[in-house]
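Problem 12. The chain below contains 327 residues. Write out its predicted structure in token notation.
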Amino acid sequence: MKQATFASLNFDAKKRRTRREVFLAEMDKVVPWDALLALLEPAYPTSGRRGRPPMALSSMLRIHFMQQWYALSDPAMEDALYEIESMRRFAGLELNEDAIPDETTILKFRRWLEQRGLAVKILAVVNAHLGERKLLLRAGTIVDATLIAASPSTKNQTKSRDPEMHQTKKGNQWYFGMKAHIGVDAESGLVHTVTATAANAGDVTEVDKLLHGRETSVYADAGYTGAEKRAKPKRGRSWFIAAKRGKVKAMADRELRELHEQIEHLKASVRAKVEHPFRVLKCQFGYRKVRYKGLAKNTAQVVTLFALTNLWMARRSLLATTGEVCP
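Solution.
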């Protein structure tokens, strides 16, 4: 049994739970820890060639998830573990008993996940967990993309911007960075597929990668016009692509135009669900700008974030199955 520190005892004695404590307590209950550890354990190193032995996998995975939830750099995550008792408790660490992982250890764990392509497998495990509870139905798919900014600065050693990021124009505004493309379950609004490209890639070019193949309907905005010709054909699949506004407004027949506007409104009411994961990603988890250089590292991070987004969006239903009440 670990010996409690004075800070830990004072933490227990306080009268009010902070929002961070409530959030971490909820996520502790809804994340499928056993399934994720079973996925990662076979490849996780059990001993180091030299120096101290590796940190416990459970603690490192929890630290990695906290780093994503709170948009922390490696040094900031290390500082948070020293400063914030609720984070230490979530990671299963006691200040005077356990070694606190330094920023290099946190970085190496993230790279270990990236190099083995484990982020995609983490998303698959999370979605399997949600599917078992009938929260991911996969009858229909909504596809969309969002821009994630990257630093355009050239004040670095190479005197250049990230060569894997590009600029694109949306409306009258230019953006530099990458695009996160997602396929979302039309019923629940949960993400089942994620890809990432440079910002200048057309949305429609990724549509085939965002379909799992079992959907009977696909919804998309006007940027996906012609998508049905790029995807693998499937009998019985219906496509609901938004018409361009100018085309609808140009209709001379008033009754026909109003009918088309009603149809577009119905399509938009379904497509609206695809915006919910983007809101959680950018507003709840603060992921508005890429942290690393190169598409591979940022793709691994964004896939992990969408796996955690699914758990956040489904937390009320998941807690209800355990008899817990979400505040």
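Discussion. The beta strands are 140-149, 166-170, 173-185, 191-198, 217-220, 238-241. Students who got a different answer should revisit the alignment rule from Section 12.3.
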